[in-house]
Design goal:
The complex is a heterodimer of chains A (120) and B (157). Chain A is elongated, with a radius of gyration of 19 Å. Chain A has a single domain, classed as Immunoglobulins (Immunoglobulin-like), CATH 2.60.40. In chain A, a hairpin with a 5-residue loop joins strand 6 and strand 7. In chain A, the strands form 2 sheets. In chain A, strands 4-3-6-7 form a 4-stranded antiparallel sheet. In chain A, strands 1-2-5 form a 3-stranded antiparallel sheet. Chain A is built from 2 helices and 7 strands; from the N terminus they run ααβββββββ. Chain A is α+β, with helices and mostly antiparallel strands and 120 residues long. Chain B has 157 residues and is an alpha+beta fold. Chain B has a single domain, classed as Immunoglobulin-like (Sandwich). In chain B, the strands form 2 sheets. A 4-stranded antiparallel sheet of chain B has the order 1-6-3-2, with no helix packed on it. A 4-stranded antiparallel sheet of chain B has the order 5-4-7-8, with no helix packed on it. Chain B is elongated. Classes of the chains: A alpha+beta (120), B alpha+beta (157). The interface between A and B is medium-sized, with 31 and 33 residues. Strand 7 of chain A pairs antiparallel with strand 8 of chain B.
Chain lengths: 120, 157
């Protein structure tokens, strides 16, 4: 069911034309304090209410809120998990949803530092 | 305890009658060598204290060799010109002996790998030469750090 929801969202994202896709911008900034940082911007000149939903690859909701900002800008810090996809879904009641998808790959490895000293 | 460290050259782990006889022979010849060295030593003292003849107090080396797999190896190099019998012991941070091997190679060059490098923070290599009673210790501090490389890419539909 969750997969279906995401698949639908993705289909709508593809269908979102007429500059809808350009209204929303999501930029990956990097890692800060072990969190994944994104800048999210949304152009909303009519001040329509829109909803921003952030989901992980299982369709679980990480964040949800609605706004009416004309020029929306917000920074999000998401925890690093083994979930490898993050979806930013922009929904308003007028246009098709805009979905921005990010793939996250976390590779863990051990680094050995070795110091050898002759003591006698 | 010796099983906690693997040595590349399995020779030293040989157990059994053959190796026992071989050890016994080596032991006898070592005793003879020890007597010989003792004589040289005494002769040296009588000669103004200047060392002469064969000495085996060459400085040993312990190097760390990183591997692609992440678990490194320790390369022990010991120029034992006299061919004296010497031991290599590896101790953990509490002084417990993880490994001990006896050798008499003149040009000793072997690699040791820790069985459990992730849980090892400190080991000490002790090289003890029975010929001249020189003991060399090398303290190895191992720091294991978990590093996460994060890659985030946008997927354009």
């Amino acid at each position: 069911m969750l997969v279906m929801t995401l698949a639908t969202a993705h289909a709508q994202s593809v269908a979102a034309g007429d500059g809808q896709n350009e209204k929303a911008t999501v930029k990956y900034l990097g890692i800060q304090d072990d969190m994944i940082v994104f800048n999210v911007a949304y152009t909303n000149p009519e001040s329509n209410r829109f909803e921003l939903v952030i989901k992980d690859q299982d369709g679980s909701m990480v964040y949800q809120n609605s706004f009416t900002d004309k020029s929306f800008y917000k920074q999000f810090r998401l925890p690093k998990t083994d979930k490898d996809r993050i979806f930013f879904v922009f929904h308003n009641n007028h246009d098709a949803d805009v979905v921005k998808t990010f793939e996250v790959n976390v590779n863990s490895r051990f680094v050995h530092s070795v110091a050898i000293k002759k003591i006698d | 305890m010796t099983s906690q460290i693997h040595e590349h050259h399995k020779k030293s782990f040989m157990h059994g009658s053959k190796s026992m006889i071989s050890r016994l022979r080596k032991s006898i010849s070592l005793s003879l060598l020890t007597v010989l060295f003792a004589s040289i030593s005494i002769a040296t003292l009588g000669n103004g204290g200047e060392p002469i003849g064969i000495r085996s107090a060459a400085t040993a080396e312990v190097k760390y060799i990183a591997t692609k797999e992440g678990d490194g190896m320790f390369n022990v190099i010991y120029n034992n010109a006299a061919g004296s019998r010497f031991s290599i012991a590896v101790l953990d941070e509490y002084g417990n002996q993880l490994y001990q091997g006896f050798f008499s190679d003149r040009k000793f060059n072997r690699k040791f790998r820790l069985a459990d490098p992730e849980s090892t923070s400190k080991v000490t290599f002790v090289i003890r030469n029975s010929g001249d009673n020189v003991v060399q210790r090398f303290e190895v501090d191992v720091t294991n750090q978990l590093v996460e490389d994060v890659q985030v890419t946008e997927i354009h539909g």
